[in-house]
Amino acid sequence: MSGAQPEKSRGRQGKAVCALLLATSIFALMRPGLLHAQETELRGEVSESAILSDQQRKARQLALAAQGQQAPAAQDDAPPRTYLPASAGAVPDDADTNTATGSIFDPQATDDASTDTPTPPKPRRRPSTAGQTGADQDKAKTDARTTGKSKKKKNTTAATVETTAATDDADNAATDQEAANRRALTVDSADRQKLDPGAERTAAIEGQNKKAEDDPFAATGVKWGSFVIRPSIEQGLTATTNGDSSSAGTSALLSETALRFSAISDWRENSATIDGYGLFRETVSGYPVHDAQGRIEGQLNVDLDNELRAIAKLGYEAVPETASSPNAIAGVSTQPLRQTIDGSLGVEKAAGKMQYKLTGAVSHDFYGDAELSDGTSLSQKDQDNTLYTATLRTGYEISPALTPFTEIEVGRRVYDQRIDNEGFERSSTRLGARAGLQLDMGEKLSGEFSAGWLREAIDDKSLEAISGATVNADLKWSPQRGTTIGLTGKTTVETTTTAGESGDILYSGRLTGERLIRANLTANAALGLDWRDYVGIDGHDRILSAEAGLTWWVNRYAGLTSRVRTEKLTSNLPGRDYTANSVYLGLKVQR
After folding, report:
1. Is 331 left (phi over 0), alpha (psi -120 to 50) or beta?
2. Mean pLDDT of the chain
């Protein structure tokens, strides 16, 4: 019986173990959800690895019990610990909580028997009702303040988060836009690569933004080789009170024809210009006038090495002697024609602020015969002469706009007839010196002026040398757009073959103005003063002139032009005074 008793006991224990294992398995299946809910309420979520570790520990304990290894009695019989919070709502951090597994329900498995019977915590004194009520009220107030602060902090935090998010969004948008711009720039750069000239697209004519022209009625010109030629012709009638501007002249109606042209090269480095004009006057009625005059001049600019620049000029002029000239012959039907061939070659060099220019010039005058009223002619060959001059200019550039300079001129005038018809040896030697200022202020003011002294000593000792002060100027000033004011001055030595006379010095000055009233209407005016000082005799001439005109362009190629002019010569020599007033109306055609 004693042997059977243990066997039955073991059988009952085996059944109990099996039931316990089954219950444990069912509980294990249900426990994760319960543990999760309980742990979430007490201390937050517990990791699933901690739950699985706790289940494995329990299973090992049951397996040991099934094998007959009894767990310590103290552990099995120990009453469950009761949770006593230290304060309302607080969760104690138990020292004996299994930190390895993170479980808050099961004690840590250990073989030490001293840890099986835990010491219960000391019961705390329960506060009185009044004190508890006051404490609860204080706690409520504190919780309310804390809740308000928490809400305020949350609101502030939320606002800060929203502001930060908005700033981040703006920064991200700016960054994205910058990246897009870089990509677009890269694409544009690739698209803007230079194409083959034949493959470039040309915009429509209607859509082109064409720059406004400074002068929409200026001549367009005709392309001829490497030059652009701008020709014009002007035809009109002049009504004058003095046909030939002489003391014996009378009124007349004259037909005037003027031909003008200019040609400018379009070379890349060097440049060339050609200018010319021709004026023909014929009497329609009144005082007989039959004359023609003209000039053509070309200039070539060539850039050489070592900052050298060469300037070459060549010209031809044919002008009849005027009736008011000192060399005019009285009582002739036609004054002699004076022809001039002139040329010059100059070399310029700039060395720092210093500027140097050396110019050599040659001018040859030859005269035709004068036709007398009886049909005979009078030769003027004794007036033919050639003037050779050399001029050295030295300038110092104070600024790009101001360059003062000095000039020295030497020359020799040689007559074709060493002794003229009156028996005088007219050849002479020239010497002159000038000082001036060159201006370059763009469109506002440009040009130069100078003053000095000039002397021509005649070889014939019986004739007085021609000498006197010289004034030269060529200035253009634009006070405002569309207005141009010009000032020109010139000093000329006039020779003569009159017996006992050396010649004279002529000072000529012109003040001109041009105003663009409208795009197709231009006004111009001029004032003139000439002073002629005779050498060897006490004589002088003064000539005053004034002129005003209008030009109205019908279109770019044709326009109407008109002008009025007055001229008056006053002299202390007999038979030279005259006054001439005239009105002109004509049509001008240009290309």
Report:
1. left
2. 78
pTM for the predicted model, two decimal places = 0.64
Sheet holding 370-372, edge to edge: 332-334, 370-372, 377-378
Could you tell me the two tokens for 122? 């000391």
Structure confidence by residue, pLDDT tens digits, 175-208: 566 665 555 444 444 444 444 545 555 555 444 4
Look up residue 423 and give its DSSP letter: S
Q: Could you tell me if 417 and 385 are in contact, meaning their C-beta atoms sit under 8 angstroms apart?
A: no
Options 2.40.160, 2.60.40, 2.60.120, 2.70.50; which CATH number does 223-590 get? 2.40.160
**Under the phi-then-psi rule, with left for phi > 0, alpha for psi from -120 to 50, and beta for the rest, what region is 503?**
left
Give residues with Cβ within 8 angstroms of 136, minimum separation 6: none
DSSP per-residue string spanning 31-76? HHHHHHHHHHHHTS---HHHHHHHHHHHHHHHHHHHTT-PPPHHHH
Q: Locate 517 and state its tokens.
A: 């009233």
Q: Which of 234, 230, 213 is nearest to 222 (CA)?
A: 230
Question: Do residues 476 and 515 lie in contact, with contact meaning Cβ atoms separated by under 8 Å?
Answer: no
- Number of Cβ within 10 Å of residue 249's Cβ equals 20
List where CATH 2.40.160 sits in the chain: 223-590
Contact between 486 and 448 (Cβ < 8 Å):
no
Contact present, 313 and 299 (Cβ < 8 Å): yes
Cα 426 to chain centroid, rounded: 60
Tokens coding 431: 């010497």
